[in-house]
Amino acid sequence: MANSTTTTLPAQTTGAALMRALKSFALLRESWVGMFGAGIILLWALMAIFAPLLAPYEPNATLLAYQRPPWWPGMEVAEGTPTFLLGTDHVGRDILSRIVYGSQTVLIYAPLATFCAYAVGILMGLAAGYYRGWVDDVLSRIADIILSFPVLVLYVIIIATFGASPVNIVVAIIFASSPGIMRIVRGLVLDLRNRDYVAAAQTRGESSWRIMLVEILPNARGPLIVDACLRLGYVIITIGVLGFLGLGMPPPDPDWGGMVNETRQIALAFPHMTLFPCIAISSLILGFNLLADGLREISLRD
Amino acid sequence: MAFKFDEGAPVLEIKDLNLSYWTRAGEIPAVIDFSLTVHKGESIGLVGESGCGKSTVAMAIMQYMGSNGTIKSGSIKFKGVELTELNEEELRHLRGKHISMIYQEPFAALNPSLTLGNQLKEVLITHEDLSGAEAYDRAVQMLTDVRLPDPERVMAAYPHQISGGQQQRVVIAMGLMSSPSLLLLDEPTTALDVTVEAGITKLIAEISRKFGTSQIYISHNLGLILEVCDRVFVMYSGEVVEEGTINSLFTWPKHPYTHGLFGCIPLPTADKNASPLQPIPGQLPLPHERPPGCNFGPRCDFFQDGRCDRGVVGMDSVTGTSATDHRVRCVRWTEIDYGAEVAHGEAKQPMEFGDTVLEVDNMQKYYEVHDRSIAAIISGESVKFVKANEAINFSAREGETVAIVGESGCGKSTFAKVLMGLETATEGAVRHEGKDIAEIPVRERDPKQIGKLQMVFQNPFDTLNPSHTVGGQIARVIKKFGVEQDKDKIRDRVMKLLDIVKLPRDFYYRRPRQLSGGQKQRIGIARAFAGNPSMVIADEPVSALDVSVAAAVTELLMEIQREHKTTLLFISHDLSVVRYLADRIVVMYLGQIMERGTTTEIFDPPYHPYTEALLSAVPIADPEVTKREILLEGNLPSVLNPPKGCPFSTRCPRKIGKICDEDRPPVQMASEGHAIACHIPLEELRRVEPVIRVPQEDERVHVKEASA
Asked: How near does any CA of chain B get to the CA of A38, in Å?
């Protein structure tokens, strides 16, 4: 009996984990809103991964000496010039290729920044909610101070001081969003710390950090996953806004916010140059928001 | 809105009611073939375990089934008016005026942002078009009727300003405001302390006499039903399995389920060694997995192939004996002779106690409370002490069960925290296996020592971490206490622990949400016993479980204790459970020990007046047991401002005078080990009559009938 159970253990656990993952995905399928959101995100993710295959041209190459509008059926073009599906920008670069490559920037730095902000926010929130007392007072006041600044001003100050680079953008986002995450985590911990299983862990002499990370944090994951999806959307907006303000990724590499900024003065004459990057930004944000809605709907149901 | 009531008709007549809920899994029949008649002034009890459909019946009477509940067939007539045919507008006039409902949690039933007076008056202003002044007078009168002292003050108060027992009285007053013909009470005292519960139960029993209100009383507690009702309906898995007058059903239970329920309650006749509880085997079937034929069939000792699992089992009238108006849903009720079967579980040898394992010597725990108001700082009284535990003295030997009994706020949980090292004592010593641990917090204790002193928690839904597997959680404890280090050995030990708590080994991979309440509590016990403890603290381990599950868990706990010679410190508010399983009892009130002694010493005179009141408050599900009625007046004093003398002096019915208010009561030794902290001389306490009188076996009605 004991032997037979011993041998089946690894298969059971990995199998069970796989089954659980499949089950949560099956649950998401019941919310069409969530599925639609997940679909949009998946589309952009595939585009970022297969950018070299999907992009028709080199994103930074000047291909034409003049601007060209997006392609339409029956469009007349000069002999021997290539087709540009979404047209070219003010310096003659292919907009489609720049959007495709630009998705790489967004989909690498937005999740990275969000993840780091969560790491910081969760640790602060756990400590504040679990220890209470002066730890809570100090951390909460720091969070209040940061949150009392207008977010945009905060970004501009940080990036203007340290210079526009991917690392600084990530640091700025961590600084500005971790207090909000901390507050959510702290609220959840205040409730969870009173559960009997936490008392059980305390009475067997577990260390505080083990209790916070192993006993409390996994039970807070539901609301945090929903919040993470929404927050990813905000971070994408932030990266877009920073690009637009000229504080984003350094040129000439494609950056959606930057593309809007570079062409905004000629937007009335050539709307396609600003319109397509804008659609890219908002569709990705929409994807994350819909996914968050779907996840929330599912979590409320069960 | 006027209803055409037929005053001659019964207050409520339910016929062949079938209710279903629609869920994602499909249609779930919640109540099947339910019939009930309530006459004027009658009190009906609905008993059953969770999920039996008793609350659904109440909701159906209120026509408040929610969006997914429907009445499939049958009729509900209130004074001749068919409720299932009324529209929303008509129902609004009916609810609260003709039919009122009282819920379990008084605090949740009252609006915290309105004064109680406004909430009470609203009933009359809405339903009877009274002016504010008239409504005020009626409300004050009603508060006097439910025996609330100082009704004018209560009218001006907000819900949080009065105690839980007073809140429930206000809720009852609100229910009675427009003189309804029918009152539905859904577990109205479950959230209250026993001594408070006794007062509310008495009030509810008086109401039908005084106002002629009919009542439907829903409860899981057979003892309470006995005290307040005239007739009782026992429900199981959506069906009524037995109904009858209180006397008939409690004296001659005919259905095996009813009979089984009585075997699960620690009645005064049960004894942990001579006649232990007999849990009902198996589990309640899920609503969509009910067996064919009798729902109770798979768990029944009298199950017969081919008869119990065929067709629909109908209600049958009980004839013979002295039973009147008694019906049962069982095909074999005439054949079953409970007297011939072994009435109780297997008798066991009493335990032999070994050396002293725990010794508590004058332990004190004070909490400092800082008042940061300016007035307090100026007057120099900014630090106050909450005396959570004061001068706690007792000891426990190997294999012994010591119970700490007391109502909320008596300091029993604080004491457990000090033992576990979550708090440290302010003064005194707590010696566990000879080592003083009173001032060593858990983090500084040796893992082996921690493993020797473990705890079973109260709430089964909270005791296991929902994010980890059952096996992982037990394995962690084994590793932490250093019992085993090797991975395979740890797993073997987890499997053995699962065997000990009688759960299948594949529970190792389960998550807590896949377990029932009783199974979770078993895992909680397995976890506590993982480090081979010499002592286990059980904080109300079965109070949140259904009766039949509670009996099984209690028996399991005692079996493991017997096998491992573990000392059990059982914390509870329920004296009937404590009487059943404890060898010695410590009665606490406001942080102090009022009385301690062996179980017989506590249950027989001399009593401390508080013990006397506690004993009288516990409902006993046996109509032939007689109790002396002692009702406590007033509320529990605040721990921040306890009485100067005896803590019980403010509510004591035997108070002898000023000395009780001003001096600490002396600890008097009635015999070796039986201590009573009271000013009343022992001789006088000895003359007190016993509170509970249990008839001898040959005095019992059913025994007399059988021999006649």
From this structure: 24
